[in-house]
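Page 47, continued from p. 46.
Same chain as before, 517 aa.
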Amino acid sequence: MDHENDYVIEMLHITKEFPGIKANDDITLQLRRGEIHALLGENGAGKSTLMSVLFGLYQPEQGEIRKDGKPVKINNPNDATALHIGMVHQHFKLIEVFTVLDNIILGAEDTKMGFVQRKQARKKVEELSKRYGLTVDLDAKVENITVGMQQRVEILKMLYRDNEILIFDEPTAVLTPQEIKELMQIMKGLTREGKSILFISHKLNEILEVSDRVSVLRKGRYIGTVNTAETTAPELSRMMVGHDVQLVVNKAPAQPGETVLKVTDMHVPSKLYKHDAVKGVSFEVRKGEIVCIAGIDGNGQSELVFGLSGLEKCSGGKIELGGVDITHAPIRKRSETGISHIPEDRHKHGLVLDFTLEQNFVLQTFEQPRFQKMGFIRFGEIRKYSERLIEEYDVRSGQGSVTVARSMSGGNQQKAIIAREIDRDLPLLMAVQPTRGLDVGAIENIHRQIVAQRDEGKAVLLISLELDEVMNLSDRILVMYEGEIVGELDPQKTTVEELGLYMAGAKRQDRKKEVSA
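Result:
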């Protein structure tokens, strides 16, 4: 099987350096024609960097790339496209106000006398979407479609350009369990048609399910390649992290105290449509417990969080924090008086990307006396604080406190936000998808931190789409479906299957009776 021309892409001895960091250190990766080859590694292991080298976004200091056995030079993404290499990025590169069709043909328009041949383009896209089972509404604007659909648009963009080698960078980070299943089917369908796929991920179960071979990177170095059929999750996580990883959360039973957050009949309008996205939701979170809101993405969880944090005005109902009505309080007031918030969109609501790490750590707190004296900022104190957080939460970056947030890997940006929010030490921790895009080692660490917060008597509201996380971490589960809470479950007494039925709307409890009882 292993003869030269069998490899459609070879990356040989690639080394790529950034200030203060060797992102790729002598890495060799070989992709066979028609295979799904997974690239596994922790955050910051160099996976995205290596793929960006293949896609022409970065130039390596050393090493060469071969296509079909011949050396090639990829100076920019246009060269990559000419070699039929395409990439779906972790954060999608779509234009929100354009339609799906325009996004797909953008930059690869067929023109005649300067006019875009839209009819032909549409026909080609429709044929592709049929052939690969990628149904999308070509006339919808991107800003109005789900993340799962946006991803299909990205895939169609690659197919429209006749790409043969498809790079998927963490493609499932933002998808629901259902969409992940569909994506796996799509990927298998693509390889059956002769495409070759590089699949970057740190989710072991997905890699085991969909890939033919796995190459593992750790801290910028190549650890090895194994056949998926002959490996196991513990073995892969050991290769990836360097030691055995615990995949279950250790925690004592909760000891709930008094109520910290009380929500009564809350309504929040939808951004996209005329109706409410959150419809009459009531629940409470007490000291010393982790309450998790579970559900398939797009069932009102984001709007619920916006309503609680003040990013969106409630259209009805009441929010009380520590007995004080904060329904109409401004964001800053909520943040100061007791809500720390790990947001869902780390780029939009979590960080100022062009600020340094240390500036991001004190975004909400720089006015406190410990960080300023007589109106002057105490930079030394901020640096000390920043160094403590970097150490405690294992935030990895090329230049420590002065690293610009934008240049850090997604997982490390996430760790920075979590460090900042947990450290503010407020009565309510609202964690939205806190481990999205993190690897097993980092997830283990963050789950520990969240449980520690609970054990210190904080109230924790967790919003998560990851079923394992919901089952492992929560003390109580509230399931949201179409803007309502349709069930309250005890993770000790329920199963993933039952949880799934509630999430899909196939099952519901009448909570009104129970709440008043």
